[in-house]
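Bumping my old thread because nobody answered last time. Still need a sequence for this structure:
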C-alpha cells in the first residue's frame, strides 16, 4: 500500500460547483446551516447537515438525519449535479484567501499509515463527534469532508503540483466568505506515478484539521475488514509552509476574586507587563496581549519560564501554566464555563467587544501556533492543548467526495 493513491472523485458536474460547494459541516450550527442553504436546493449542506431538511429541533444524530443525507446524495447524483470520474485521478486543490495561496493535492491516504503513525495526529477526539462521522459514512457509503493534512517542505512535490495547475482549472469558485476554490484534474499516468512515489518517500505527514473524520474512517475500515477503497480516507495535503494558522484567543468570565490592579500585580511575577495605547497583537510566541478594564497591555513571559519541550513552549501552554491555572483557577478548559475561545478571524476588536460588553472580564491575545510547533508535538507523540489551532481558509465540502466501492 502506498501513502496516497488516486481515486474516482464524485464531484460537481461542470459549471455547477458554485451551486454545490458549501462550508465544512463542523463550522456551522444547524440553524446557521439552515439559513445558509435557503433557496439553494443543491447546496452540499443538504448532505453534510441533513437535519436542515427535517423539523427544526430534530436530533442531529438521529437515524432519520443520516437517512436524509443518503436520500439527498442520491437525489443530487440522479439530477446530474454530482458526477463521478471514470478513472482514478489526483486533483490539485488551490485555496486563495487574503492574498495568501496554498496549493495541495486531493487524494486518498492510507489508513494503515494512519494506524502506524506515519500520518500523525495532534488532537484527542470525542466519541459523540466520531460516532456522528461513522454514521454519516455508513449511511451514504462515502467520505465527504476531506481531512486537511500538511506535508513537510519538499520542493519537488511543490513543483509537480505547480506544473499540474498551470492550465485553466476545472473549478474556479469564490465563496461568500471571499475564499477562492480552484481544482485541476491530474489524469496523466506518468504525473500520477511521480506524485505517488514522491509522497511515498516522505517519512511522515501531519493532520491539521479533521481528526474526527480520519478517526471515523479508521473505524469504518476496521468494521468492514479486508482491503478496498475503505482502506483509505479522503484528504487534501498542502505544503506546510503555505498553511495558515490563526491565533486562537481566550476570554475569561471573571478575575477569580481579584481587582484588575491585583491581577496585574500577580501577572507581573511571571511576565513583564506594559500598558499599550494600541491593541496588542503578539509579535512572538513569548508575547501576549491582555485586554482588561478598557485597556490593552503587552505581556512578555520571563525567559527562564520557557521550557524546552515541544508542548511546554507553546504559547497557550505557557499562558495556561503561568496565568490561567494559578490566577484564574481554571484547571480544565474543556469543561470550565468561565473560559471561552475566540478564533483569530474575529480580530482583536472581537476580544475587546466581549470584555466591554460586560460578558467577559479579561481577554488574552495569543501568538498563533506555528506548523513547525504542531509537527514537533506530533513527532513527539504528544497532544496539543485544546483549541490550539484555527486553520484558515477551510476546504469546501462537496468539491471532491470518496465513494466506498
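Sorry it took so long. Here it is:
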Amino acid at each position: 500500500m502506498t501513502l496516497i493513491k488516486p481515486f474516482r472523485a464524485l464531484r460537481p458536474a461542470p459549471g455547477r460547483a458554485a451551486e454545490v460547494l458549501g462550508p465544512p459541516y463542523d463550522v456551522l450550527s444547524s440553524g446557521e446551516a439552515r439559513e445558509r442553504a435557503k433557496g439553494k436546493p443543491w447546496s452540499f449542506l443538504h448532505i453534510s447537515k441533513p437535519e436542515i431538511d427535517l423539523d427544526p429541533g430534530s436530533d442531529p444524530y438521529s437515524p432519520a438525519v443520516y437517512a436524509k443525507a443518503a436520500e439527498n446524495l442520491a437525489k443530487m447524483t440522479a439530477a446530474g449535479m454530482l458526477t463521478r470520474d471514470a478513472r482514478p485521478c489526483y486533483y490539485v486543490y488551490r485555496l486563495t484567501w487574503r492574498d495568501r495561496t496554498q496549493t495541495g493535492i486531493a487524494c486518498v491516504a492510507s489508513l494503515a499509515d494512519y494506524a502506524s503513525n506515519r500520518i500523525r495526529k495532534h488532537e484527542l477526539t470525542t466519541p459523540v463527534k466520531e460516532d456522528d462521522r461513522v454514521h454519516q459514512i455508513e449511511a451514504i457509503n462515502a467520505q465527504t469532508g476531506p481531512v486537511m493534512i500538511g506535508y513537510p517542505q519538499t520542493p519537488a512535490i511543490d513543483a509537480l503540483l505547480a506544473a499540474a495547475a498551470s492550465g485553466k482549472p476545472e473549478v474556479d469558485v469564490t465563496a461568500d466568505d471571499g475564499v477562492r476554490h480552484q481544482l485541476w484534474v491530474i489524469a496523466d499516468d506518468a504525473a500520477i506515478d511521480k506524485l505517488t512515489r514522491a509522497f511515498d518517500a516522505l517519512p511522515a505527514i501531519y493532520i491539521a484539521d479533521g481528526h474526527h473524520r480520519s478517526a471515523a474512517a479508521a473505524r469504518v475500515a476496521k468494521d468492514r475488514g479486508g482491503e478496498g477503497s475503505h482502506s483509505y480516507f479522503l484528504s487534501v495535503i498542502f505544503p506546510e509552509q503555505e498553511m495558515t494558522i490563526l491565533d486562537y484567543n481566550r476570554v475569561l468570565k471573571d478575575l477569580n476574586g481579584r481587582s484588575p490592579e491585583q491581577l496585574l500585580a500577580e501577572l507581573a511575577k511571571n511576565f513583564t507587563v506594559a500598558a499599550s495605547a494600541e491593541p496588542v497583537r503578539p509579535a512572538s510566541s513569548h508575547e501576549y496581549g491582555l485586554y482588561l478594564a478598557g485597556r490593552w497591555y503587552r505581556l512578555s513571559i520571563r525567559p527562564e519560564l520557557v521550557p524546552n519541550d515541544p508542548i511546554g513552549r507553546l504559547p497557550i501552554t505557557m499562558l495556561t501554566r503561568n496565568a490561567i491555572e494559578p490566577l484564574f483557577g481554571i484547571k480544565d478548559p474543556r469543561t470550565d464555563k468561565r473560559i471561552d475561545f475566540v478564533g483569530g478571524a474575529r480580530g482583536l476588536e472581537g476580544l475587546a467587544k466581549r470584555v466591554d460588553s460586560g460578558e467577559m472580564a479579561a481577554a488574552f491575545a495569543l501568538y498563533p501556533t506555528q506548523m513547525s510547533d504542531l509537527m514537533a508535538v506530533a513527532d513527539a507523540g504528544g497532544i496539543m492543548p485544546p483549541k490550539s489551532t484555527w486553520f484558515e481558509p477551510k476546504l469546501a465540502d462537496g468539491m471532491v467526495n470518496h465513494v466506498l466501492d
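The chain has a mean pLDDT of 96. Let me know if any region looks off to you.
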